[in-house]
Amino acid sequence: MHLRSPSGLLPAARQRHSPNQDCRPVGAVVELVVVHGISLPPGEFGGEGIDQLFHNRLDAEARPCYREIAGLRVSAHLLIRRDGEIVQYVPFHRRAWHAGLSCHRGRSGCNDFSVGIELEGADQVPYTPVQYRHLARVIAALRRAYPTIPPDGVVGHSDIAPERKTDPGPAFRWDLLLRLRARGEPDLPDPRRPTWA
Ligand SMILES: [Zn+2]
User: Which of 2, 4, 101, 105 is most exposed by smallest CB count within 10 Å?
Assistant: First the structure.
């Protein structure tokens, strides 16, 4: 998997660009990957709700739970669906609107310097193996394209907005992601290999 720069596109992804994006601030560099979990309606998978939300076409009347979110203007760079399909909503060099009020190591406004990746899922439901595999490969490709992302520059939405957000939730296995990432990122320690070996 690789990125096409400077277009900021992932050729492996279906392109469905969202209007909810703008320029990153002058001088901003990509230093962080934010992992999210999302499903619309919550806990239901495979529908068009996420796509509609990111295109400002969510029908507020379709479901009671849509009423309060239908007016949001949000997006993410990528969505990885449960069957592994990758959809790109925002080119990586542009700013997606995924983090909201957020803070990482004392810096607020994480949208400015991060890539947002949504996994179709819910906090308490195991994510699928193909989602982990694709997420790990996307992160490796991002780090090749943006060497400014450090090895530990991958966090959950709940890490940067702990008072507001719980995603990707306790179901997300950070240990598994790290193990898969170690295959494609030479500067990561392989967790299976004892450090004294
Ligand atoms: Zn989120």
Answer: 105
Which positions are catalytic? 118
Cα separation, 160 vs 117, whole angstroms: 14
14-36+76-184: what CATH class?
Answer: alpha beta
**CA of residue 26 to ligand 1 center, whole Å:** 25
Structure tokens at 76: 């993410």
Q: Which of 58, 50, 65 is nearest to 116 (CA)?
A: 50
State in Å: Cα 193 to ligand 1 middle.
32
CA atoms lying within 13 Å on the CB side of residue 17: 12
Reported pTM: 0.95
Using only the alpha carbons of the chain, give its radius of gyration: 16
Domains of the chain, by residue range, sit at 14-36+76-184
Contact 86, 12 (CB under 8 A): yes
Give pLDDT tens digits for 27-85: 999 999 999 999 999 999 999 999 999 999 999 999 999 999 989 999 999 999 999 99
